Amino acid sequence: MKLYSITVTGVLVFFFLVGFKSTPSDQKFEEIYVERINIVEPDGKLKMVISNKQRQHPGMHDGHILDPRERPPGIIFFNEEQDEIGGLAFYGNKESGGNNLFLSLDQYKNDQIMQLKQSSNENGDNQYGLQLWERDKKLTPVVLQKIMDSLDEEGYYYQQKMDYLRKMNDGNPINEPRLFIGKKYNRETGLFVQDKSGNDRLRFYIDSDNAPRIEVLNEKGEVIKDIIEN
């Protein structure tokens, strides 16, 4: 019995050591199914997340993980200071009008300022192109999220939130669009330049009737000069 015990113990120790033997760092897989992949540096810092909708990362600023929120599936990128700096998002179904795809680049310590996008509305109309924004540097994602959460609790709807943010920012917008190049939902295709309040001031485009247009607008959105007609 003593010899039997020694033999069995030896065999178990052998398989234990073999089971925990280090494996090669590069392994090949024919196919894998996974809900989320975290790409990290050797020190553990997060660099990229590839995820489905349910497990998507909520975002991060100065290493601080933002409050949980619903986000579409895709890829999110992070810099050395553990800020979210952009990503690729995609979703779509019949109810939303079709596919929606966004490749976004974020301003340092802030949200997106450039986006290559394709989106659909509930009527099935498409809009796609390059969009640029200008953002206030003081309102970081962490600060902005706290304000928006507070306004949500008070029952503010979207436009009321935007008006509130503009008022607290001395009347200046915090994330107004400045330029769009592409095709709009109304089928106008061209270049549209906005002022610091997000209003179109210069349009160079082909309208829905296939006619070329070059327009200059005032702050109220009124066409004050139509170069083609004049």
Work out the helicity level: 10-25%
H/E element sequence: HEEEEEEEEEHHEEEEE
Radius of gyration: 26 Å
Question: What is the residue-mean pLDDT, rounded to a whole number?
Answer: 87
In what order do the strands lie side by side in the largest sheet?
1-2-5-6-7-8-9-10-11-12-13-14
Shape: globular
User: How many distinct helices?
Assistant: 3
Question: SS-based structural class?
Answer: alpha+beta
- What ranges have pLDDT less than 50 throughout 5 or more consecutive residues? none
Portion in strands: 35-45%
What is the terminal separation in angstroms?
Answer: 108 Å
Q: Let me know the number of strands.
A: 14
Largest β-sheet summary: 12 strands, antiparallel
Question: Which properties best describe this structure?
Answer:
3 helices, two-stranded antiparallel ribbon, twelve-stranded antiparallel β-sheet, about 20% helix, 14 strands, single chain, about 230 residues, alpha+beta
Give a concise summary.
By secondary structure, the chain is α+β, with helices and mostly antiparallel strands.
What can you see in these coordinates?
The chain is of the alpha+beta class and 230 residues long. The protein has a domain at 27-185. It contains 3 helices and 14 strands. The protein has helices spanning 2-19, 141-153, 158-168, and strands at 36-40, 46-51, 60-61, 64-65, 74-78, 84-93, 98-106, 112-120, 126-135, 175-183, 189-194, 200-206, 212-217, 223-226. The strands form 2 sheets. Strands 1-2-5-6-7-8-9-10-11-12-13-14 form a 12-stranded antiparallel β-sheet, with no helix packed on it. A two-stranded antiparallel sheet has the order 3-4. It starts with a helix and ends with a strand.
